[in-house]
Amino acid sequence: MNDITRSFGTMYIPKSALVVYQTEGQHPQTYIQHFDMDENGNPINAHPLTVKEGQALAKALNTEKKEQNKAFLRSKGIIPTNVLHIHPSENGSVVWYTKPQIRPMFFIDSLGIPNGKAHVPAMVWKASKNGLSVYALSSGIRPKAETSLYFAPFPNVYEDNRVCMGTVDVKIKQSASLEEFMHVWEESFFNSYFSHLINGHNPVNGNCVTLWKELIETQKPFPKEVLIKNRLTLKDLIK
After folding, report:
1. Do 114 and 185 have their domain in common?
2. 136 and 210 share a domain?
3. Which site from 17, 81, 82, 169 is most exposed, i.e. has the minimal number of CB atoms within 10 Å?
4. Residues 110, 196: contact at Cβ < 8 Å?
């Protein structure tokens, strides 16, 4: 007789087994016993399931988180052309850019700037689940590694380019796709209220409040000459 077991594929050998016991009655109690297996597949060494063994079993069965982590920052299709760098891990980050465009902007009343739409410069964004940094570009052309970055000309941004989101609840799903991730951060940034310059950092040449008041009221293109270089290039963001 021919041995055909080799054609079956991968052989799995039993290593352990769980037997669940339950009492009879209206309020049954459950007891789980763990068995090791000998070389012939017979149960041996019966003992109550320990906490450590239970935790190991739960971890092995918890595939949902693993699948979510695999999906995080995965593109829905072709990677968008404005993506510059992806670090696809559970705590990963993305660097992308946006061209000059018109955006809705909101300001607290005390600044004296009306809410409305305004032209904003080309921008570079770097974000993880936990935070966002933004930069400005002097051109709408796709930046290269050596492209100089400028301070983002907005209130609510620290001198080190981190964005203060205040009380805004940025909800990044564990399984967020690349496109969803970028969209949520952009919407959260521009749909929050700009309120103040942080620690005296003025990100533009001139008065930041006056600049945005004029841009909201006149709908003029963003004046690139007010941008200030921050000594960084794109390659500094993707090290």
Report:
1. yes
2. yes
3. 169
4. no
Q: Is there a domain that residue 67 lies in?
A: no
Domain that holds residue 15: 11-61
Tell me the pLDDT tens digit for each residue of 130-187. 899 999 999 999 999 999 999 999 999 999 999 998 777 788 877 789 999 999 999 9
Q: Dump pLDDT digits (tens) for 26-47.
A: 667 666 777 777 777 677 777 7
Is there a domain that residue 2 lies in? no
Instruction: Output the pTM of the full model.
Output: 0.71
N- to C-terminal Cα separation, the chain: 62
What are the structure tokens assigned to 4, written together?
A: 């055909």
Q: Pairing between strand 101-107 and 193-194?
A: parallel
Number of domains in the chain: 2
The alpha carbon of residue 127 and the mean position of all alpha carbons in its chain are separated, in whole angstroms, by 6
Consecutive H or E run containing 59? helix 51-61
**Closest to 75 (Cα-Cα) out of 209, 203, 176, 184:** 176
